[in-house]
Structure formats: structure tokens, C-alpha cells
Write a structure and sequence with these properties.
The chain has about 240 residues and is of the alpha/beta class. It has 7 helices and 9 strands; from the N terminus they run E-H-E-H-E-H-E-E-H-E-E-E-H-E-H-H. The radius of gyration is 17 Å and the shape is globular.
Length: about 240
């Protein structure tokens, strides 16, 4: 148990397509300790309970930040022996070598988290040989990443509902001097916010979250990242390097 990686999987399943993506994600994780945080799904409950090593059910959609924090807090309290934790979106499929690569990179005591190259959902897995601990912050995505469980001192800011919490989280992590490593040695397929596209309030949530970020940090997230990483922000988010 002590060497097993834990995955936190927030889910909000409203239709068969989302359930199919969730099943594919879980199949790709391998032998892990799976914590499923269910944000009031309307279908797939029997499957979720069967697949989870620990199942948390919320009676309303609490969003990614709060659901992920629930998973972090449960694991830290009940399973402090676990060495790695990976928050994951339920519309990803990860390459089979992700855990091996994460353990290698996280052996560096300065590295807080490992972020993998993201590719389109139906693109074949391809691998490189490089890891960066600086210079690729723009591409350190939160859809799937692995963190050293012993270093988790920061939680997602629950004031954000389903957007900009990733920008804000990494900003606070890096402010402490910890490194977020980006690597192309492993990768993951992503269906690009599949669940969020089904939420009618998505655009309004994004607007509110953008303003919230500015109120907390003095600038909009994009403006702040341009100031901090001017060379990186000249390039588009896609394709990932």
C-alpha cells in the first residue's frame, strides 16, 4: 500500500458519453488507490462505487476545486503512508509509463509536482526525453498531474468554481519556491473540458472567476502570466511542446 499511487477523480456524470470517458480514464490509471468524488452525478453510481477504493458523494455539484480538496484531505488523514497523489479530470487517458516517470522526477526534493504533455484524445501516445523545472510553466496543466504527497501544503482555492483555480493554485505553489516540472517523457490524452461544456453557466462562471482572480492578485490571470512568463506567453496554449 505504501508505494501505491492515489488518484483523486472528481466526476459529474449526466449522460452516457461522460460515463464512457470516465470508464476509459479509470482503465488507463492502472493499479492505484482510487478516490472518486462524485459531484451529484445522475447516472453511473453503481459503477463509481464499485470502482472506487473510497467513494465520496456530494449532493450538489461543488466544482473541481472543492472536490479535489476533499480527496486531498481524506488521503492525508486516512492514508498518510501514500507517496504520490494525482488529481485527474475524468476525460483523460494517461500513458502507461506515467507513474514511473513521475517517481523518477519527484525524486528531486525541489520538485513539487509533475505535469505531462497533453495531446488530443485520439492522438497516439508519443514520448520525448526531456524534463524542465522552469521555462515551461505555461504548459503545466492541471487536467492530470502528480504531486509528492508529503509536500502537499496548498489546497485549491474553493472560491473558484471550475476555472482559474488551476492558474491560482500554481501561482501559490511557485511563490513558495517549489518547482512544477513539465515533461514529455509521458503524456495523456484529453477531451478538452468535456464535462464543463455541458454546463450552461460555464461562460458566466468563467467571467466571475476571472474577476475573482483579479481581485485576489491585482491583475487578470493572463496579464499576470504575461508579466511573469513573457516569452512563453507569446506562444499558443495549443499545441503543447
Amino acid at each position: 500500500m505504501s508505494q501505491k499511487l492515489a488518484i483523486i477523480l472528481p466526476v459529474y456524470i449526466l449522460n452516457q458519453e461522460t460515463l464512457d470517458l470516465t470508464e476509459a480514464a479509470i482503465d488507463s490509471f492502472g493499479d492505484v488507490f482510487l478516490v472518486i468524488v462524485d459531484n451529484a452525478s445522475t447516472m453511473g453510481l453503481d459503477y463509481l462505487k464499485q470502482m472506487a477504493d473510497h467513494y465520496i458523494r456530494n449532493e450538489e455539484n461543488r466544482g473541481y476545486a472543492q472536490a479535489t480538496n476533499q480527496g486531498f484531505k481524506y488521503l492525508q488523514k486516512e492514508h498518510p503512508e501514500l507517496t504520490l497523489i494525482a488529481p485527474a479530470n475524468n476525460d483523460v487517458r494517461v500513458s502507461p509509463n506515467y507513474e514511473e516517470v513521475a517517481r523518477e522526477i519527484l525524486s528531486d526534493s525541489k520538485v513539487y509536482s509533475v505535469h505531462f504533455r497533453m495531446i488530443p484524445y485520439n492522438e497516439l501516445f508519443t514520448y520525448g526525453n526531456d524534463t524542465w523545472t522552469s521555462g515551461k510553466e505555461r504548459w503545466c496543466s492541471q487536467s492530470f498531474f502528480v504531486v509528492d504527497a508529503k509536500k502537499v501544503l496548498e489546497y485549491f482555492d474553493e472560491d473558484f468554481f471550475n476555472s482559474y483555480c488551476d492558474w491560482e493554485y500554481q501561482l501559490r505553489v511557485r511563490a513558495t519556491g517549489r518547482q512544477t516540472a513539465y515533461t514529455n517523457k509521458a503524456c495523456y490524452q484529453h477531451e478538452d473540458s468535456f464535462t464543463q461544456k455541458q454546463i450552461p453557466e460555464r461562460e458566466e462562471n468563467n467571467r466571475k472567476n476571472a474577476e475573482l482572480f483579479k481581485s485576489k492578485h491585482g491583475k487578470y490571470a493572463e496579464e499576470l502570466f504575461i508579466q511573469m512568463y513573457p516569452d512563453q506567453m507569446k506562444f499558443p496554449w495549443r499545441p503543447f511542446p
